[in-house]
Amino acid sequence: MPTMSSVLPLSAPAPRTRDPRVAERGQHKLGKRLRRQVGQAIADFGMIEAGDKVMVCLSGGKDSYTLLDVLLQLQKKAPVPFELVAVNLDQKQPGFPEQVLPDYLTALGVPFQIIEQDTYSVVSRLIPEGKTLCSLCSRMRRGALYNHAARHGFTKIALGHHRDDRVATFFMNLFHHAKISSMPPKLLSDDGKHVVIRPLAYVSESDIIEYAAARNFPIIPCNLCGSQENLQRRQVGVMMQQWEAQHPGRIEQISRALGNIQPSQMADAALFDFMALGRGDDASRPDAPSAWVEADLPVDQPASVPVAGVGVPH
After folding, report:
1. 8 A C-beta contact, residue 157 and residue 197
2. What letters, b where the CB count within 10 A reaches 16 and e where it falls short, cover 280-310?
3. Could you tell me which of 15, 87, 33, 100 has the C-alpha nearest to residue 56?
4. Exposure string (b/e) for 256-271, b if CB count within 10 Å is 16 or more?
5. What are 204-241's pLDDT values in tens digits?
């Protein structure tokens, strides 16, 4: 028998089991939020119209899976009829599991098309080792998708870029290209032939990560650019994550700011007529701007400045 001084070990507390109904309610709320945000983006920017044939670009990543999944749900109750077709570009990356997407889409009963184009070899051959492949890869991928859309009569091309992508692009352009520009929710291609839409424009990446895990999408990693380190966009992403951890809601505020531009409070004369400020209707136009720019003076002949009590040289 144990003595009075003996210390009996305490039994380990029984593990707390999480009520599955709590997780289910959380997933339901998340799905509802995503449908609302995607529906709002579609409405705000007129992304989808009656009779549209939408090409949903499916890479096998969390973003494009989420995009297709939410659009399929919205399609059932949408105010206008439209068609969805999933399209994957098989870039012939070594080890790419080419049956994952066809099997997944077939099981869902979703129409799909596979484009086979060996952009991997081209990009790997043209870009020196150690350099980032993103720029060339993106251009080649975009060209292949545009050509496919034209051949098959797609009226809209849906991409999986989300809110955080838009904010990151804003900072990339700010830091590296000295311009205020981002990733628009809707755009017309340079040749004027294709309308590109980004229905996830209001959705945060953290919500997409959680949603993709809950839906158990068969994620396919990108071996072409996903393994590259020290990309500028990744560095911007780290900065944004630190900000969000220290100041929750900051990324959402920046995203909202991208939709609340005040040209008169910036300094772009092409967007706002600063010349007209303070000028009467009958006033003549100010002198040409170039007349106000001081002409270069020779280095050995500095401009003379009159000083009190000192004669001005003749």
Report:
1. yes
2. eeeeeeeeeeeeeeeeeeeeeeeeeeeeeee
3. 87
4. eebeeeeeeeeeeeee
5. 999 999 999 999 999 987 655 544 544 788 889 999 99
Give phi and psi for 57, each to the nearest 5: -75, 115
**Tokens describing residue 2:** 């144990």
pLDDT digits (tens, 9 = 90+) for 54-103: 999 999 999 999 999 999 999 999 999 999 999 999 887 777 888 999 99
Phi, psi (5° rounding) for residue 55? -90, 110
Number of other CB atoms surrounding residue 194 within 10 Å: 20
What's at 170, amino acid-wise?
F
Single pTM value for the model: 0.80
φ and ψ of 282, to 5 deg: -100, 5
The one-letter amino acid code at 85 reads V
Residue 87 phi/psi, 5-degree rounding, is -130, 125
DSSP 8-state assignment for residue 263: G
Instruction: Decide if 102 contacts 72 (C-beta within 8 A).
Output: no
pLDDT, tens only, 257-275? 999 999 999 999 999 999 8
Three-class secondary structure of residue 303 per DSSP: coil
Name the DSSP letter for residue 283. Answer: P
What token pair was written down for 128? Answer: 């020196």
pLDDT number for residue 119: 72
Segments of 1-159 assigned E as strands? 53-57, 83-90, 112-116, 156-158
CB distance 55 to 148 below 8 Å: yes
